[in-house]
Amino acid sequence: MKISSIFILSISSLFILACNSEPRKLPILGSREPVEKTVDGKTVVDTIYQTIPAFSFMNQDSAIINNDSLKNSIYVADFFFTSCPSICPIMSKNLLTVYEKYKGNPEVRFLSHTIDPKYDTIPVLKKYADKLGVKGTQWSFLLGSKDSVYLLAKNGYMSYSKENDSIPGGYEHSGYFLLVDKDKRIRGAYDGTDKDQVAQMSKDMDVLLSEYHPK
């Protein structure tokens, strides 16, 4: 039987594409700076990416959470307050579905930073976590000084938080979830009130994890 040359070319093309295909990688967000360095006697240009600054906050179980606590994990960060009458309950409900998916996975963490430290004491954060059904340190509801949290939101997560007495709840903040890799670089930003974007974040988390476990 004579095999068509077009068929052979098509199969060959598919084989080449399969061999050359690479796993999808998430972009690195934030500012970046080109720097020159010497490698094997040659000058090459490398890129320094924005990373999350060092921080140290206390969670709902009075445990200290800092950069070292997260060195072997990717994580999702957001900003909220427990008495929020608008987007926070929606965000927490949506993030809970992602938490349930990765529950027990030591490579995945969740950080929710309160922007109302005066009201959101450790017992209040603990009650909030218990009501959601969150146990342990995989999802930490973090308490820090207002200045340190607001500065971290602005300089670390490209986010914002501020007091605003003209709106219900008295605080204004970003409704985004920020996906951070093990090198403390932001790899994705998702509207925490949008179920489709949260679902995409969940898929992207699988993609990010695969970077650390190549097949």
UniProtKB/TrEMBL annotation:
Q: Which Gene3D superfamilies match?
A: Glutaredoxin (3.40.30.10)
Q: What CDD domains does the database record attribute to this sequence?
A: SCO
Query: What keywords sit in the KW lines?
Result: Copper
For the keyword NADP, the answer is: no
| Start and end residues of each Thioredoxin domain | 46-210
**Pfam families on file:** SCO1-SenC
The family this protein is said to belong to: Belongs to the SCO1/2 family.
PANTHER family, alphabetized: ELECTRON TRANSPORT PROTIN SCO1/SENC FAMILY MEMBER, LINALOOL DEHYDRATASE_ISOMERASE DOMAIN-CONTAINING PROTEIN
- What name does this protein carry? SCO family protein
